[in-house]
Design a protein that fits this description.
Blueprint lengths: L2 H21 L11 H19 L2 H17 L7 H23 L11 H25 L1 H8 L8 H20 L1 H4 L4 H8 L4 H13 L3 H16 L6 H13 L9 H41 L9 H17 L3 H25 L10 H11 L15 H8 L16 H9 L1 H25 L3 H15 L7 H30 L3 H5 L1
Helix pairs in contact: 2-3, 3-4, 3-5, 4-5, 4-15, 5-15, 5-19, 6-19, 7-10, 7-11, 9-21, 10-11, 10-12, 10-20, 12-13, 13-14, 13-15, 16-21, 18-19, 19-20, 19-21, 20-21
């Protein structure tokens, strides 16, 4: 190699090194760099909200929102924990804020004592944050070491291939896991969550490198379209993950000029992406959901259609709804869906223990029993069915239930309150947050690399820590089983898969 070639190779290597240093997470300094700024922002917005709404509960809600997000936003992982807390906050507060402004609750109904419900929810969020921070501190050595291990030597093409193969292979199983093995349906479902891992790693790598967007777009199409064709709203989780992976590149604590430019680009893209998610949510709630489920579940034309025909029909329905969309109706439908759990929580606070006594641990016992007695070992275990019986019993609402194939959730915080009152919210929310960090610690032990550990964390939190009205009776068992099953599979097979998707070092310079 002549002198000129050596100089060009050195320049290429230096350019990549500098770009990596500027774009990679700066692990020096506080691990929670946004705690102070977000807490100050929350206090300011809280005071403004109290003045404008004349409601202390609404104002303290903004303080709790920004404080909990700041206290859980780590610099070495995507903001999945702050996102989950914020999403739950929206479910608890959007109805109360609309009621405070317009005097009516989304979807109708008399919410009763909204202030008590908001204070109870905010207390639970604070305890969740304390549990998360406590666990993160106890297990900090293992977690910090793994999350700081973020090599970029991944082959984007092979990650895309692995994503496509895993999703295509799982579609038949995903259609009806109970028909394959009823007793092991939960095991199958947890194994199916593993198909998302290469896609999550692909997102992290592409956004970090700022290249490979065409392959990412193709993989996203493969991942997203079958979710749209099921009739459920699980597709929104894909949008959330893409947005969170993008926001991971927003690092205001890094002061370099390159990162400041990157922060502006990410903030602009994130704003556009967030607005797009809201717009699609309005379209879904404004008519697509109803018409599409009619097509799929109630004898419509899409029941026996091929996947391609379903895609065409789905696109047609979206087009029809968009042209005739009633924004006000769609907004009310979306707000009513998000806030139903908070409405039922307010009813529960009114009825328990005044009308229905505290259960003194009965619901928690059901959750532990459901987790400790897996169906594949105990096939005669009682089937839990839907969650509507909780709403009927403790909120006093005749919600549609198993007889109509519906399941309407009450929420894990109301269940904690039903069992033990406010002490239950305090202790069990802290326990829930701490339990999540135990799973993170286990993942940090078994994952062969930082991105795989992050992908496992994202999958766990999206499934078991996003929804405010999720039943702890079910999510407790699911959280434990997903942690055990995914950790075992990753420990056995991930090192071999990792070798295949890793690029040789020389390709990075090219």
């Amino acid at each position: 190699m002549n002198v000129s070639s050596k100089r060009m190779a050195a320049e290429r290597s230096q350019t990549f090194s500098e770009r990596y240093r500027d774009s990679s997470p700066n692990l020096s300094g506080p691990i929670y760099p946004l705690s102070g700024p977000l807490i100050i922002t929350g206090v300011f917005l809280g005071i403004v909200a109290i003045v404008l709404s004349q409601s202390i509960a609404v104002g303290t809600g903004f303080i709790v929102l920004f404080s909990t997000c700041g206290l859980t936003w780590r610099r070495d992982m995507p903001p999945i924990i702050p996102f989950c807390l914020a999403y739950q906050w929206v479910g608890a507060h959007v109805g109360a804020i609309q009621y405070q402004i317009y005097g009516e609750f989304p979807g109708g109904g008399d919410p009763g004592n909204l202030s008590e419900m908001l204070f109870a929810t905010q207390l639970g969020m604070i305890c969740l944050t304390l549990g998360l921070r406590t666990g993160m501190h106890i297990f900090r050595n293992s977690i910090d070491r793994k999350l700081s291990n973020r090599p970029l030597q991944y082959n984007v093409s092979r990650l895309t291939q692995l994503t496509v193969v895993m999703f295509v292979s799982s579609y038949i199983v995903d259609a009806a896991p109970t028909s394959i093995w009823f007793g092991g349906a939960q095991i199958i479902n947890n194994l199916l969550t593993l198909r998302f891992l290469p896609y999550f790693v692909l997102l992290l790598v592409v956004f970090e490198r700022r290249s490979g967007y065409r392959l990412l777009a193709f993989a996203t199409f493969v991942v997203l379209m079958p979710q749209l064709l099921t009739g459920f709203s699980d597709f929104k989780e894909i949008f959330f993950i893409v947005l969170l992976s993008l926001l991971y590149q927003w690092r205001p604590w890094i002061r370099s000029s390159a990162q400041r430019l990157r922060n502006f680009q990410v903030a602009s893209s994130g704003l556009i992406g967030g607005l797009a998610i809201i717009a699609f949510g309005l379209v879904w709630a404004g008519g697509v959901k109803e018409q599409w489920r009619q097509e799929l579940w109630n004898g419509g034309n899409a029941v026996d259609a091929s996947p391609i025909d379903r895609m065409v029909r789905f696109s047609g329905i979206v087009g029809e709804v968009v042209t005739e969309l009633d924004i006000e109706h769609a907004s009310q439908s979306l707000a009513a869906r998000l806030s139903s759990g908070s409405l039922y929580f307010s009813y529960t606070l009114h009825r328990v223990p005044a009308i229905v006594p505290h259960e003194e641990g009965e619901l928690l016992g059901r959750a532990v029993s459901n987790a400790m007695l897996p169906r594949f070992l105990f096939p005669n275990k009682e089937t839990l069915g839907g969650d509507s019986w909780l709403v009927r019993t403790y909120a006093g609402i005749e919600a549609a239930g198993d007889e109509s194939g519906a399941s309407i959730g009450l929420g894990y915080m109301p269940e904690f309150y039903i069992d033990f009152g406010y002490p239950g919210i305090i202790t069990l929310c802290f326990f829930y947050g701490f339990l999540l960090t135990i799973s993170i610690w286990i993942f940090s032990k078994v994952a062969p690399s930082g991105p795989i550990c992050i992908a496992l964390i994202i999958s766990l939190f999206i499934h078991y820590f996003t929804v405010f009205d999720a039943s702890f009776i079910k999510i407790f068992a699911g959280l434990i089983q997903q942690t055990i099953i995914c950790s075992a599979v990753i420990y056995l097979f991930a090192p071999s898969a990792l070798k295949w998707v890793r690029s040789p070092p020389s390709s990075q310079n090219r």
